[in-house]
Amino acid sequence: MPVDITTVPPHGQFSLAVHGGAGPAPADEEHTAARRDGLTRALLAGRAVLERGGAALDAACAAVVVLEDDPAFNAGVGAALTRAGTAELDACVADGATGLAGAVAVSRHARNPVLAARAVLERTPHVLLVAPGVEWLASVGVDRVSPAHFVTPERLEALRSSLPDPSSPVLGHGTVGAVARDRRGGLAAATSTGGVTGQWEGRVGDTPVVGAGTWADERVAVSGTGIGEFFLRAALAHDVAARVRWTGATLPDAVREAIEEHLVGRGGDGGVIAAGGDGTIVVGYCSAAMLRGYLGADGPVVVV
Fold first, then answer.
1. Which among 82, 175, 225, 280 is annotated as catalytic?
2. Active site residue 32
3. Per residue in 220-272, pLDDT tens?
4. Cα(213)–Cα(209) distance, rounded to whole angstroms?
5. Burial class (CB in 10 A: 0-12, 13-18, 19+), 188
6. Domains of the chain and CATH, by start
7. What are residue 6's DSSP bridge partners?
8. Which of 11, 190, 196, 241 has the fewest CB atoms within 10 Å, measured from its CB?
9. Exposed, middle or buried by CB within 10 Å (0-12, 13-18, 19+), for 240?
């Protein structure tokens, strides 16, 4: 599969991009239209933050919250279910302005896992919490819900109909993410997912692992989506940033080279969105399709 690259040159004072997952070409146009609508609303939520001078991390989180609350995506409500029929959610945020990151894995009670990840960054000395409890969530002001909140009839049916062999997870669209550059030049990334349908309980993908599916420093912010095990083995999000930092590669070249080496070259599947320190946005993927959108301060909202 060739690598599809879209580069949006810097314009205006801030930039923002979102994704709604990479994978097979969607067959349901109604569902695809719902996801495009969700990506548009996420971009508008993030842009509102950036327009009033908010930080990149605020904008990325605002965009991802919209997508976690939308059952059309595989994050938050409507997330993919484990073979036991439960939702185990992962999320990560990375703030290039401070060099800090926070993540949660196997989250069952946080209404918005991305906000729990941000609480790890801001309220603890840690980077990653597994299965954060309701007491801790309450102590840091994150809304709690019953695990049943995340389970939808559509995801239950997907689990029943797609898994004659419950030990084989089924891949598809839905992981969500955002990258942003604010007016001060700060960069941030946020990613959230329910994993893959039929995954083993306790499986953790690339999303909450800093440097695998999510990364931000002073030069590059990256959010990935695809088959998480390939991103994990390659530390793919960090690899994109390392190519920019250490080889002098342009952001489009860094994205293309990382996907070619670690996904195409190894039989993987997926893509990334990336924001550069100058405001450039790059979208790259080798999947049959990737739902994505982007904007700049002076540009229109674009969702494809």
1. 175
2. no
3. 999 999 999 999 999 999 999 999 999 999 999 999 999 999 999 999 999 99
4. 6
5. buried
6. 4-76+92-97+168-296 (3.60.20.30)
7. 283
8. 11
9. buried
CB atoms within 10 A of CB 24: 12
CA contacts within 13 A on the Cβ side of 196:
22
pTM of the model: 0.96
- Check the CA dihedral 30-31-35-41 and report its sign: positive
Six token digits for residue 230: 């390939």
